[in-house]
Write a structure and sequence with these properties.
Elements: E1 2-5, E2 7-10, E3 13-21, H1 38-66, H2 69-82, H3 85-98, H4 102-118, H5 123-143, E4 158-162, H6 167-172, E5 178-183, H7 191-198, E6 203-205, H8 210-213, E7 219-223, E8 228-231, H9 235-256, E9 272-277, H10 283-288, E10 294-298, H11 311-325, E11 330-334, H12 345-348, H13 362-368, H14 370-383, E12 388-393, H15 399-418, E13 429-433, H16 436-440, H17 442-445, E14 451-454, H18 456-464, H19 482-497, E15 502-504, H20 515-521, E16 525-529, H21 533-541, H22 545-556, H23 561-575
Parallel strand pairs: 3-4, 4-5, 5-6, 9-10, 9-16, 10-11, 11-12, 12-13, 13-14, 14-15, 15-16
Antiparallel strand pairs: 1-8, 2-6, 3-7, 7-8
Helix pairs in contact: 1-2, 1-5, 2-5, 3-4, 4-5, 11-14, 14-15, 20-22
The chain binds phosphoenolpyruvate (PEP) and magnesium ion.
Length: 583
């Protein structure tokens, strides 16, 4: 038995079997070699081919056992490719001429052959290109000591253990079978963590060395509430956690049973509680958790679909589906917010930036790609006739940028009218306040839009200069840093002075410790992962605006995150007994 501590990224407790996921994306190294190294590189190539032959042998045996003719033929074709004298001699020649490492040579040689076969126009040869692709990938994986596995297809329930997953991996995994996530890397506000919470999959991230400490098939207790994993627990620990798990499930059921009640404070103020979603299919969960609408639909996850589809139509259908599904409740769709940890190769190319978090992302990307931006706006305005839509722009950093955005909006409306399209021209427009410069100038920005939504995930990142996905500095990612709270207060006051509502859609909105502070500062609405809504509602129903103002006032005088958190924790513990379950 071994216990490891990480970052609690998505709550819940699961007990299950480990499945180790190793990334199968190829990142090909490039090094120059000397003439003396040619022989050893050729030897490495031969060894990798032998390892590939062994893998194919296993597949051949399985195909034989299953009497699967297609599979048998495929393996046979791959074996032939593996020994193809043309391919092998081409690799040897290129190695001698280019004097680069064997991984790069295999990659380039196979790509040249694949391109040649693909452009031949001959169906048979084009199919052979697929074989070369598969075989060369296996050889490269063996050269780089990687395993190929997929997350889309499991025959039994698993807890996925990995170095890290991209949001697109998390999106595509088999959610019926993946019961928990435990990663070496990642922070609470990373998009993979956000997706885990959306899908209600318990997750512990930032474990640093979990991939080195477990084997496939090990039993894991994963406690997403406390950020703990226990590898191969003894009987006593297992029994204890089964009881805690049961208690947690009962608590969840109890909170869910409150979903029909309104979020009204003891002194009668109605607070808007909304859900954050990433995919249209989450609408059902938003309604089941008693949300007053969708406060943030992260539209960029739609863009993880390939570029070959007609994106305006695809988006239009997706937005329409969400709007109709929400039955006229407000739906705030945020325009494309890519970049940072949401890299989309078909849109951004494979050019890496030195500082992606501060780089060509989000609204900056859209303003430099009017084709993409306008297609999205057209889809939104057209979908707007099917429900109560609001459009929100991410990562605005100042008024000139906002003016530029508003100009494109006007152009799109003009073009839709000219085309005779069916669209709703009167959709409220809002912006996210998630960059400190926008918070500081929110008095100016507020005069130009219909609403604000505070994105604390990025606002904290940029205010404290702490990468939200980096486990090494996760201790600095402080929601209650006085600088963050002062910016939040400034934004709320500026919005109200300009007569516009302000809500919050960053993760702080769903943090039970923050509810009373935000209420006291005057926040109008909270938007969060749906499963959080019943708990936050329960808190709001048990406090009054007047007492929350006193608490917010006290807190704004405090000097540090730790002082504020300690104060809030002890106040909450006295008030509520349903908040935490101690292990
Ligand atoms: C935020 O930054 O707080 C936010 C809600 O946006 P995202 O997490 O998608 O960056
Ligand atoms: Mg953000």
């Amino acid at each position: 038995m071994q216990k490891m501590n990480g970052i609690s990224a998505s709550p819940g407790i699961v007990i299950g079997q480990v499945h180790i996921h190793r990334d199968d994306r190829l990142s090909i190294p490039e090094n120059s070699i000397s003439k003396e190294m040619i022989d050893s590189e050729i030897k490495r190539f031969a060894t990798a081919r032998e390892a590939t032959r062994a893998e194919l042998g296993v597949l051949a045996k399985k195909a034989e056992e299953d009497d699967n003719i297609t599979q048998k033929e495929l393996v046979k074709a791959h074996m032939l490719m593996l020994d193809d004298p043309e391919f092998i001699s081409q690799v040897h020649t290129n190695l001698g001429q280019e004097l680069k490492n064997i991984e790069l040579i295999v990659y380039k040689t196979s790509r040249t052959i694949i391109n040649m076969l693909k452009s031949s126009g001959d169906e048979y040869l084009m199919e052979r290109a697929e074989d070369i692709f598969d075989v060369s990938k296996r050889i490269l994986m063996n050269l780089m000591s990687k395993e190929t596995v997929s997350l889309t297809d499991f025959s039994h329930e698993v807890i996925v253990v990995a170095r890290n997953l991209l949001p697109s991996d998390t999106l595509g995994m088999d959610k019926r079978m993946v019961k928990g996530l435990a990663f070496d890397m990642g922070g609470k506000a990373s998009h993979t963590a956000i997706l885990a919470r959306s899908f209600e999959i318990p997750a512990v991230l930032g474990l640093k060395t979990i991939t080195a400490n477990v084997n496939n098939g090990d039993i894991l207790i994963l406690d997403g509430n406390d950020g703990v994993v226990i590898i191969n627990p003894d009987e006593k620990t297992l029994e204890r956690y089964k009881k805690i798990q049961h208690k947690w499930q009962q608590r969840e059921l109890h909170l869910l049973s409150l979903s029909e009640l309104s979020a009204e404070t003891k002194d009668g103020k109605l607070i808007k509680l909304q859900g954050n979603i990433e995919i249209p299919e989450e609408v059902e969960s938003v309604l089941a958790h008693g949300a007053d609408g969708i406060g943030l639909y992260r539209s960029e996850f739609l863009f993880m679909q390939p570029s070959s589809i007609d994106h305006e139509e695809f988006q239009f259908e997706s937005y329409k589906k969400v709007l109709i599904g929400m039955k006229n409740k407000p739906v705030t769709i945020r325009t494309l917010d890519i970049g940072g940890d949401k890299f989309i190769p078909w849109l951004q190319g494979d050019k890496s930036e030195e500082n992606p978090i501060l780089g060509w992302r989000s609204i900056r990307f859209c303003l430099s790609r009017h084709d993409v931006f306008k297609a999205q706006l057209r889809a939104l305005y057209r979908a707007g006739v099917y429900g109560n839509l609001r459009i929100m722009f991410p990562m605005i950093s100042g008024v000139n940028e906002l003016d530029e955005v508003l100009k494109v909006v006007e152009q799109v409306k003009y073009e839709l009218k000219k085309d005779g399209a069916n669209f709703n021209p009167d959709i409220p427009i809002g912006i996210m306040i998630e960059v400190p410069s926008a918070a500081m100038t929110s008095d100016i920005l507020a005069k130009k839009v219909d609403f604000f939504s505070i994105g604390t995930n990025d606002l904290i990142q940029y205010t404290i200069a702490v990468d939200r996905g980096n486990q090494n500095i996760a201790y600095l990612y402080e929601s209650f840093h006085p600088a963050v709270l002062r910016l939040i207060k400034l934004v709320i006051d500026n919005a109200h002075n300009a007569g516009i509502p302000v809500s919050m859609c960053g993760e702080v909105a769903g943090d039970p410790l923050a509810t009373v502070v935000l209420l006291g500062l005057g926040l109008d609405g909270y938007s969060m992962s749906c499963f959080r809504i019943p708990e936050i509602k329960q808190i709001i129903r048990n406090i009054s605006v007047s007492e929350s103002e006193v608490i917010a006032g006290t807190i704004m005088e405090m000097k540090s995150h730790s002082e504020i958190e300690e104060y809030l924790r002890s106040w909450m513990n006295e008030m509520f007994d349903f908040l935490s379950i101690s292990t």
